[in-house]
Amino acid sequence: MEKPLIILKLGGSSITDKKSAEPKTRPDVISRLAKEVAEAYAGQKFSLVIVHGAGSFGHGIVKKTGIDKGLHNDEQLLAFAEVQRLQNVLNSLVTQALIESGVPAMPCQASSHAILENGRIIKMDTETIKKLVERGMVPVLYGVPAYDTVKGCSILSGDQIAPYVAKKLGAAKIIHGTNVDGIFTSDPNTDKNARHIKLITTENIEEVKKMLGGSATTDVTGGMAGKVQELADMEIDSQITSALEPGKIRAALLGEAVGTTVKL
Amino acid sequence: MEKPLIILKLGGSSITDKKSAEPKTRPDVISRLAKEVAEAYAGQKFSLVIVHGAGSFGHGIVKKTGIDKGLHNDEQLLAFAEVQRLQNVLNSLVTQALIESGVPAMPCQASSHAILENGRIIKMDTETIKKLVERGMVPVLYGVPAYDTVKGCSILSGDQIAPYVAKKLGAAKIIHGTNVDGIFTSDPNTDKNARHIKLITTENIEEVKKMLGGSATTDVTGGMAGKVQELADMEIDSQITSALEPGKIRAALLGEAVGTTVKL
């Protein structure tokens, strides 16, 4: 690819109201993020693939029906289909905002061709996504329930799709838009001594993981620590920043050092 | 596969209001068809893949933007994305009706991985669709704008998807649910001498094509004649019947000789 490729992951907890029992978007956040992406993308300095999570469009119904643990009855077949349908509804709303802002945001349903084994991708063709990117399109993938050779169905999360596509397409970096502005030594919402970690490299990664692991708020920062390790394993630079604070995603897309950068 | 596989193609002119300038479904038709499919599928005598057309969700915007003739400017990139998004919206409505009726209707977006060359599929992985069918799911594919190696974008119609999937998965037959009840020698709406053709075989196909070709209403029945030839080329049995007359689709799924049968 001629331009560096960025993978932008937008967390389900940012674009939906994750506390809602029913599927519910955050239209104001989606609309603002779409404009930020459009402004950054208009400069034509990079190619882009977006991957978003499910939030309240997935977690509730998956937990209720247990489809991520396998398909054991007809009700679960229906739930598998309905969870997929709900993700397409969410994706239609996200891509609508992007398209209206001027981003050629092409919906791409990974589960129409991916095959998983015990929850991990064993087959997923990314040639079409690559070709779309080369033609100037912005493929928008999203967390989905997918066919699993062992369990029948398992969840192919945006967190698995993003590094997979990044690696296959040789992305320059992954930007994780989440509900906190990067990695902190503890939960910044409850601990006034929480320290922001600006840069993680091979030199300090073990120290950082020890700090996160030893923290009393592992449950809050644990997700981030897990992501740090997953990204370290993929050997792709990444950046974790807030999708809720206006301007951060645009800044990250334009190469500014907002949030936490993981450079390996 | 253990059970015979049926491919059910539902025309865009049946499930949408094709005369509408704006995307508009026919919710009563979709709801009734969903119930007919559910009733037939409940007997568990066959496996099923559904393919539906775009109707007013596609033809207007494709014609207006010319994306089927190639991508020449940024507006067309946006239109490519928007046409795909609209198909996902239509598919969400179709699968919602099916799921509510008890059919595990799994949305499957062909353009997330298909590659076309001058409008014809040159690559499309159907392994996931096969596996979903084997697990009792009913994949629902649909006409989409897709990446084309020559033009950038071209239209992958339901009429191309249906025989492609049928061949790849070894389907027993394709049922075409359209707005007429099979093949007629001329337009039955305007010609009271129009004769219904109940069965087309290798013995009478040339005679039938001659009848259709020589008819003064070629523009009306031409679509059907084209389908007859396309299906003849695929060497798969097919049946053309009305999706608008209640009961016909259920009857066809249950093996009754409604409409026109093409047996080759």
Protein model, in words:
The structure is a homodimer of 264-residue chains. The first copy, chain A, has 264 residues and is of the alpha/beta class. In chain A, 40% of the residues lie in helices and 22% in strands. Chain A has nine helices and 14 strands.
Characterize this entry briefly.
With 264 residues, the first copy, chain A, is α/β, with parallel strands linked by helices.
Q: Low-confidence parts of chain A, pLDDT < 50 over ≥5 residues?
A: 215-222
What is the global morphology of chain A? Answer: globular
Name given to the CATH architecture of chain A: 3-Layer(aba) Sandwich
Tell me, rounded to a whole number, the average pLDDT of chain A.
91
Give the domain tally of chain A. Answer: 1
Give a topology summary.
The structure is a homodimer of 264-residue chains.
Chain A: E1 5-10, H1 12-15, H2 27-41, E2 47-52, H3 59-65, H4 74-100, E3 105-107, E4 115-117, E5 120-123, H5 127-134, E6 138-142, E7 144-148, E8 152-156, H6 158-169, E9 173-178, E10 183-184, E11 196-197, E12 199-200, H7 205-214, H8 218-234, E13 237-242, H9 248-253, E14 260-262
Helix pairs in contact in A: 2-4, 6-8, 7-8
Q: Key terms for this structure?
A:
homodimer; 264 residues; alpha/beta; Carbamate kinase; eight-stranded mixed beta sheet; two-stranded antiparallel ribbon; 22% strand
